[in-house]
Amino acid sequence: MLYKNRIRSQAEYEAARLASIENPEAFWAEVASNLHWQKPWDKVLDWSFDPYEVKWFSGGKLNISENCLDRHLADRGDKTAIIFEPNDPKDLARRITYRELYFEVCKFANVLKRNGVRKGDRVCLYMPMIPALAVATLACARIGAIHSVVFAGFSANSMADRINDAACSVVITADGMSRGPKQIPLKRVVDEALDNCSTVNRVIVYNHLNWMPEMVSGRDVWWHEELQHVDSECPAEPMDAEDMLFILYTSGSTGKPKGVVHTCGGYATYVDYSFRNVFQIEENDIYWCTADIGWITGHSYLLYGPLMSGISSVMFEGIPTYPDPGRFWSVIDKHGVTVFYTAPTAIRSLMAAGIDHVLAFNLHSLRVLGSVGEPINEEAWHWYYLHVGKERCPVVDTWWQTETGGIMISAMAGVTASKPAHAGQPLPGIQPVLLNQEGQEIEGNDQEGYLAVKFPWPSMIRTTYGDHERCYQTYFSAYKNYYFTGDGARRDENGLYRIIGRVDDVINVSGHRFGTAEIENAINQNKHVIESAVVGYPHDIKGQGIYAFVICDKMPDNATQLREDIYETVSSEIGRIAKPDKIQFVTGLPKTRSGKIMRRILRKVAENELGSLGDTSTLLDPLIVDEIVAGKL
Ligand code: WT7
Asked: From the centroid of its chain, how far is CA 91?
């Protein structure tokens, strides 16, 4: 069984890659057999990209929570599953064993049942990064409820949109949360969101900070009080491989985020496989992924991947710079972290804070470093490799997306080739291609094009919730019979992929994805704003910054005040994380005669490439470009 555990050499990698192309079904059947299935599948794969429908492991039954918990009780019951590191380093870290986590999940699953949650119901989670979030997510999975985790940095409006889109019946939240020096009243945000949500009939509130928020009678219940009424036995619901496991909203080039749907069997199979192989996981690893469960990285590689592997992993409530920019490194030494997975934006911000913070720690426990979410520039890569990994630890630069469910292109730590600023080669089973404008495959190496995938993989997006046509249009219509990623990429002379960045109207700010249209919609909600256009520009720490060109009812007397006002609007429409870095007030936008905004010109201005604005003669009002250039921030 070559692929059952993990691939350990370049030769095994090559063999696995060939085997996965020659006989995908046999390959994936072997990979999937690493999991516990309550009933074996009848057929490994049925698929079509036009129209789009894929089914993996049809007829098979399994439950991912059983694979994360029950399966480990015999051999790993007393092993630590989660090491909880609180926001404030003066508070005690908490260790939760697999057995304890199992009981907590079973009990909370019974709380969900007691509160009317049934298989197939949608449950929204709006929680701090604390073990209760892991428990609630696994409890949903255990009874077959579909979880929709909403990152706690999103506003009440964003939450309400997501709740309504999925018609969630229950929300799980906490009184509040701590992030660095700040505290955020989560329950109050939920109350505000629910003013506009008619489908929610129950809110379960976890007492995290002892704030005792107001409870709406008949709707809100306390997590700890509910626990008094349930027992700790809850069999895992047998789930069809193609039953929905979760919905996770992500931004695209249109104004409205879409609910990416993942299903039980394929997602579990691919996350388990990719996790073990990319990080070359070993039984005694202490693994730490710094992502929030509110993003796909947290779903796949903080929660499900590590637990399916039965290893110990760190869950961190706080932020990299609190109480000081040495926090990550101190936590690594404190818990003996062996595998560390974080985002380039975090690396760059800690780099900017100065080398002393990292040199103060020895970091000798580290074995593997990972990067995710955006291209990692060479400077950050080298700093990470040298000062964090001490030139001993392979760096895996993992390319993937919410829609892909798991890591698609990445080195396998210490096994396959890795090169600064390059994600590397695809995992066996993944068949990426580069396409030209006409949608033809570009053969050979040392080539650049649109990144697409030509064959299904188990954890690919199944649909966008409630709107399958949108899924087809977004991912499968641009290039017939390919999954289109929205990224441009380059394949170097050795076949290693380097991701160049998005080729659509999506910007990646600190590893978070936003549609420019989504931010424009938010800005336009401000009562003084008539129209706006948003573009990304290179930002030293965030990767991309948000640059907004805004037309107001009149040019503002007090630009600072109006900017604050617009920040407020964006915060309440989307959340603080989407706050524009620059707002330039303009009297017009460069538009074609048909009214289309020429973003190319705005991008050049934002990037400060004023010498290459290109042809502006087709604009309705070419003079507006001079005004915009003159007022550039
Ligand atoms: C987009 C997906 C995958 C989890 C976090 C982000 C960019 C992601 C890399 C990487 C260069 C990357 C792509 C992709 N991206 N990882 N290693 N190198 N770019 O998930 O929010 O769904 O965003 O992030 O542009 O399309 P996401």
From this structure: 28
